[in-house]
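Before going further, learn to read the protein records used in this course. The integers have meaning only within a learned vocabulary of local backbone shapes. The record below shows the convention in full.
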Amino acid sequence: MLEYISVGVFIDGGYYAKINRALKAQDRSIIRVRSLFDYICARLSMEEGVHVSDCQITEAHYFRGRFRVKEAYDKHLLYNERKFEDTLIENDVIFHYKHLREVERDGQTEVVEKGVDVWFALEAYELATFRKFDYVVLITGDADHEMLVRKLKALKIKTVLLTWNLTDVDATSSLLREEAGHHWELSDIIEESPYLKKQLLYKLREPAVTPLGDDF
């Protein structure tokens, strides 16, 4: 049994944004980052039989593609990006960004995000190696991270896959789910605990119908 638990949290920003968009559409709510982190510590401490004060998220990292400043300004995203970054800073989350590109294909504009998933995997593996986390929590549903989970397990680091599936489109990859040693599906968990749902979500005061907030 562990006497102290060191946790590393790695957030796939694109996946996290999908969750928040679905929550806004369904319930005009978004995730409270602080409450989510508290839940992670409370559950791990309970499972390991240690006091919750001895379970600490020692590092948290967020990875996302984002537009350059002029493009973000033109799309009315700057305020929302800064507001969300304030939330990350307040919760000691380190953010990692790569620029997005827009390309024209078959008469339509597509947003291209290159290298973020690879960066996510490399950073998670490298930090897990050097920091020697007891647990790594991955907030993602991407099948591309299956090998990351396998490598973390090879380091004998307990790995938790934390997902929140709200639509069929955002369903977690079955390969990733099978590879993970622990899988917490929050949509199922909160069904059994309305109190937890209330704790994890922040209710928006106005309908989320403007471009502001659509990406976070």
